[in-house]
Amino acid sequence: MSLAEELSLIPDLSFSPDHDLTRFTTMRLASVGDLVEVRSVNAVQRLLPLLKKYERSYLVVGWGANQILPAQCDELVIYLDLPFDPGSLSAPMESYRLPASVGLNQLTGHALRFGLAGWEVFTGIPASLGGAIFMNAGTNLGEFGALVTQVELVTRDGEIREEHMTSKSFSYRRNHFVAPGEVIVSATLVHRGLNPEIPQKIRDYLEYRKKTQPLATRNCGCVFKNPNRELPAGKLIDLLGLKGLSVGGLRVSSKHANFIENTGASTWEEFQTLVNIIKSYADQFYGIEFELEVKIPYD
Ligand SMILES: Cc1cc2nc3c(=O)[nH]c(=O)nc-3n(C[C@H](O)[C@H](O)[C@H](O)COP(=O)(O)OP(=O)(O)OC[C@H]3O[C@@H](n4cnc5c(N)ncnc54)[C@H](O)[C@@H]3O)c2cc1C
To answer: What is the pTM assigned to this prediction?
Structure first.
């Protein structure tokens, strides 16, 4: 049997070869590749050992808000759409066990309604829960990792592995516990009590983001990690006068210089070119080696 035939036997799983992957990243660079959409944890448990058996490389895409996929994606793309009952967010709880595919926007809606302290830290971040954990996403209000107590992953052998969070589980835009090939399937989140001031804090922060980030454009968020808290990459790029710099249809945002906007039918090569230009400026003028925050397969 071929991999495709074996995949067709797994319930809650759809395999689409040579699929248009463009909409699977917020940057919307044109991309084609094999896609597997998975709708249950059990299907993830059956999928990963098969990919191991066939030595097929793969990646997971959440909201694709921090990933760029190449025009021809050789890695099989796994997209999770796990069962989630929105009714489970109809009242505040002490802790929440949630599927990795739930959107942070839904969680922000819950925090707005009930004033969950701590949940304001992820206001406005476009992400799935799995992607936010993998990246330890954050804002200047705090980091997502601080709210996570436990994560369930599926290993390459299809086993469920439970990881309890410690002070060493996360650092700036990184996790330290997802092994290569593992897929986060659910996580437990906590908050710091109910506080009636939180809804206004969330609303104010959303307004601030609208003013300072090009949210209406196609982009992948911050392209580079901040070299440190005092030196935000956007500020450094702005001081170099690179706002508005274009390669093909890609442009350094004039609203926030650490964002690259896709204004047309841009390519993966153009993205690499623009990134390399910015990196070489930063190296030449500041002696700083910019590190990518956005995930680029094969980089
Ligand atoms: C307009 C805009 C604003 C943004 N603002 C912020 C911000 O303020 N702060 C911030 O931190 N980020 C920001 N980002 C970046 C992005 O939102 C975050 O990095 C977010 O955590 C990505 O989540 P995702 O679900 O889109 O993950 P993806 O981009 O799809 O994936 C990111 C990484 O996580 C891995 N991954 C995803 N899901 C899983 C899973 N279930 N199991 C294992 N690995 C997985 C992927 O393989 C990939 O390596 C912004 C992006 C945009 C477009």
So the answer is: 0.96
